[in-house]
Design brief:
There is one protein chain. By secondary structure, the chain is mainly beta. The strands form four sheets. Strands 1, 2, 3, 4, 5, 6, 7, 8, 9, 10, 11 and 14 form a twelve-stranded antiparallel beta sheet that branches. Strands 15, 18, 19, 20, 21, 22, 23, 24 and 25 form a nine-stranded antiparallel beta sheet that branches. Strands 12-13 form a two-stranded antiparallel ribbon. The protein has two domains: about 230 residues, no CATH class; about 160 residues, no CATH class. Strand 4 and strand 5 form a beta hairpin. It is built from six helices and 25 strands. Helix content is about 10%, strand content about 40%.
Length: about 400
């Protein structure tokens, strides 16, 4: 960049200088495939294709710098080269010239440096050339890898690459010296004619059209800004931790207990905390429910953790379904339902009427095949035990201690 040009521009045109500052603070709006395709990059500054600017024109916003065929003062045709960021590449897309066919196109480039730090700028002109290839409709395009721009290995991580492309985080990025060149031929036939980038504009009319150019520049300059990747971050991975044993409890009604402790039974494994209910078929057909408690040692519910609810219903055929509904962050690892006649011969959950293991941390579960309501004799009642092995889902590195078993 010619420092004399910048000094004259800023000192001689106060309004223009102020405008340049405003332009460099463009509102940032974008969608970028690298950002959208990788949630782990959320918040990382990346080049913003909507903020290409022309430093030689007071940082005028321009994504598609002009090109021309023939003499600059009387061009035969004009067109543009549109810049874009796709993946980890800077793309140059050469649009066609009316009445002409592009037969070759190239971009010669050099890294200018950190656009916010004039002390980092290299000297022009650019010397490295990238050949472009023809695409559909006569449009030529070529691309420049970010790692080539930075002069780093192609194996450089995406995070380090973006840090190099955005040295000032979500502000000014890098500047490049560029030369656009190539040949066109008249569509009706004729000799090849060269084209090039337009010279920097030094004056514009009220419509913004350029009326004067600085033809001493054999190159142009392009810069851009960076914007933080605005994709939502990936949710943290959840760790499954065993939380404890849950038993269904039915709250008293009118001061009358609805649940009975397991340790009132003499069956195998019944000398432990937990409860059973004795619903009639009619009550089940109306539906019963209650909390699921974990860690009620000694059957003391004041010590327990309420992890959700259970609901038991019976259909008209006397078939019973039990549904578990857990509150986050709790999830089901196993469920066990016992529906038998008293007295209880066994209280070990694995020996219940219905057992489901290895449930994949679901918040809800129902026995898929309804259980038959038992026909009890000799005045015996039906007993219902609702049991579950409960996990807790956490983002912490270590599991909290289990509450109870």
């Amino acid at each position: 960049m010619k420092l004399t040009q910048i000094t004259t521009f800023a000192a001689g045109c106060g309004l223009a200088a102020a405008s340049a500052i405003d332009i460099r603070s463009l509102h940032k709006r974008w969608t970028y495939d690298v950002c959208l395709n990788d949630c782990s990059l959320a918040g990382i500054p990346m080049p913003d294709k909507n903020t290409f600017q022309l430093p030689l024109e007071g940082f005028r916003s321009e994504q598609c710098p002009p090109t021309f065929v023939g003499p600059q003062d009387a061009p035969l045709a004009t067109s543009t080269v549109c810049l874009d960021f796709v993946g980890t590449y800077l793309y140059f897309n050469f649009s066609t010239f009316p009445g002409y066919t592009i037969t070759s196109a190239a971009v010669t480039w050099e890294l200018m440096g950190n656009i916010a730090n004039a002390g980092s700028w290299s000297d022009p002109p650019p010397t490295t050339t990238v050949a472009c290839t023809a695409g559909s409709g006569g449009v030529y395009s070529c691309r420049l890898a970010f790692t080539d721009i930075l002069g780093v290995p192609s194996t450089t991580s995406i995070v380090d690459t973006m840090a190099g492309m955005c040295p000032n985080t979500d502000r000014e990025g890098l500047g490049l010296y560029l030369v656009f060149s190539g040949l066109v031929e008249p569509i009706g036939g004729g000799a090849a004619i060269p084209f090039q980038q337009q010279f920097p504009c030094t004056s514009r009319d009220s419509d913004g059209s350029c009326t004067a150019w600085d033809t001493t520049y054999p190159y142009t300059e392009i810069s851009y800004r960076c914007t933080n990747c605005n994709v939502s971050p990936a949710p943290p991975s959840l760790k499954t931790c065993g939380f404890g044993t849950a038993f269904g409890y039915e709250n008293p009604v009118g001061g009358v207990a609805k649940s009975t402790t397991l340790n009132t039974q003499s069956g195998t494994g019944c000398n432990r905390w937990g409860w059973y209910e004795t619903p009639t078929l009619s009550e089940l057909q109306g539906g019963i429910s209650g909390p699921l408690y974990v860690g009620a040692g000694g059957n003391d519910i004041t010590k327990a953790v309420d992890v959700g609810i259970w609901v038991a219903t019976a259909n008209s055929l006397g078939r019973v379904t039990v549904t578990y509904l857990l509150n986050p962050p709790y999830a089901l690892g196993e469920v066990h339902v016992d529906l038998v006649c008293l007295p209880l011969a066994k209280c070990a959950p694995g020996q219940y009427t219905y057992n489901a293991g290895a449930i994949p941390n679901l918040p809800t579960w129902s026995n898929p095949t309804p259980l038959a309501y038992p026909t009890c004799t000799g005045g015996s009642k039906a007993a219902l035990i609702v049991h579950a092995a409960v996990n807790i889902l956490t983002v912490t590195a270590t599991c909290p201690p289990p509450t109870a078993v």
